[in-house]
User: Which sequence fits this backbone?
């Protein structure tokens, strides 16, 4: 039984307000959840409610969302008994009543949903990942961490158009070894950048943000840093993954502006193919814009047998959109962000649809994060095999990787990596 539901405005990793939601049960059990927030958001994402009050955090305040939790949502839920978080989620969806959770705010809704899921696990004396594995009816596994070590796009002030350059220790023997590999390559990359005269300041997700504009130059540096650290570049060792977040550099005319060049969808696909020929790129997320569905079908036909093509802004963790994409043979993988859809239940549904269709899934943080580690448990519990949570640096990023290490330590029998 829910005794109390309470939200407060806290800060995210970018010094912007977000929500912390605390749920107290009648048994005196208390859990809390922190709400993430994106910068390069898809237009069809569930709606994050901001106050637009210029006197309060420059318009970024979430006082209205907080008031919805403490008012309407608390009134609807407190004093009532729920046996599963799915029941709470159904209640939240009905209470909001809109498709995009725009009335109560997806930030308010996901905060309560995360807290409800955590309350169910805690009440049952289970770890969050165990509870999720039972609900999703899948075999849990430890995911390959995708460390975002070079930041560009909307996450950094440099001239790099691609948003994320990740290293993925696909060939690591275990999760702790994968984290160690990530940290070692990160250190080597930092040394290389410093030697090359580049600034080593960090972007929003903890990766370096050097003054480089050509993506190929970054890929070259990553391969060198992997080698410097004594690892093998490639799928048997450490592979590369990209999130260009192409919607962000798409022009109104439907072209893609990269380092001064204006490319058509097909020219950009050619460029990706060249990158895959020259570098061990194993995954590309949002390679094309969210409105370029015809481009996406050609991208998938060209590269889908060779690499993972992940839909983020185009899919927004939305079960209906993913279903349409599967039908139209768009991408072969989905990025999974809980706040894009707004409840844990709908997130699990999106992942189930992917599993049934043979689409892989990568659980993801947002560029604005808190110390909350729910997504680490989500990745483990759904057995999807992949998690991206930024660089192996900055507390809010490292919290997720450290949670994976704790799970791995407590449960040595859990397998690591993607199912091949
Ligand atoms: P966001 O970026 O959290 O700023 O939307 C993450 C991503 O594009 O994957
Ligand atoms: Zn993305």
Assistant:
């Amino acid at each position: 039984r829910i005794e109390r539901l309470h939200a407060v405005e806290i800060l995210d990793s970018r010094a912007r307000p977000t929500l912390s939601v605390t749920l107290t049960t009648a048994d005196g059990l208390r859990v809390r959840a922190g709400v993430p927030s994106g910068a390069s958001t898809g237009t069809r994402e569930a709606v994050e409610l901001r106050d637009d009050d210029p006197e309060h955090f420059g318009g970024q305040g979430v006082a209205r969302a907080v008031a919805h939790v403490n008012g309407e949502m608390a009134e609807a839920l407190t004093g009532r008994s729920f046996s599963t978080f799915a029941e709470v989620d159904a209640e939240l969806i009905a209470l909001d009543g809109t498709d995009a959770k725009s009335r109560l705010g997806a930030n308010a809704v996901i905060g309560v949903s995360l807290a409800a899921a955590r309350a169910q696990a805690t009440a049952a004396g289970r770890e969050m990942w165990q509870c999720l594995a039972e609900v999703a009816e899948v075999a849990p596994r430890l995911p390959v961490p995708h460390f975002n070590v070079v930041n560009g796009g909307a996450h950094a002030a440099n001239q790099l158009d691609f948003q994320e350059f990740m290293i993925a220790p696909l060939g690591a023997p275990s999760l702790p070894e994968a984290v160690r590999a990530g940290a070692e390559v990160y250190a080597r990359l930092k040394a290389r950048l410093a030697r090359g005269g580049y600034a080593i300041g960090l972007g929003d997700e903890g990766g370096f943000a050097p003054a480089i504009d050509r993506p190929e130059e970054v890929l070259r540096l990553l391969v060198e840093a992997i080698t410097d650290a004594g690892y093998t570049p490639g799928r048997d060792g450490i592979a590369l993954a990209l999130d260009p977040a192409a919607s962000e550099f798409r022009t109104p005319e439907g072209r893609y502006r990269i380092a001064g060049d204006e490319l058509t969808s097909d020219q950009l696909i050619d460029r990706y193919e060249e990158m895959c020929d020259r570098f061990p790129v194993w995954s590309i997320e949002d390679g094309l814009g969210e409105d370029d569905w015809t481009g996406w079908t050609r991208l998938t036909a060209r590269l889908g047998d060779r690499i993972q093509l992940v839909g983020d802004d185009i899919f927004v963790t939305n079960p209906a959109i993913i279903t349409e994409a599967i039908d139209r043979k768009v991408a072969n993988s989905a990025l999974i962000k809980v706040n894009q859809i707004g409840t844990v239940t709908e997130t699990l549904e999106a992942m189930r649809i992917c599993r049934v269709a043979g689409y892989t899934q990568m659980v993801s943080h947002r560029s604005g994060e808190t110390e909350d580690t729910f997504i680490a448990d989500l990745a483990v519990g759904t057995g999807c095999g992949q998690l991206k949570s930024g660089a192996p640096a900055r507390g809010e990023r490292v919290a997720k990787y450290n949670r994976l290490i704790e799970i791995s330590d407590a449960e040595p029998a859990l397998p690591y990596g993607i199912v091949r």
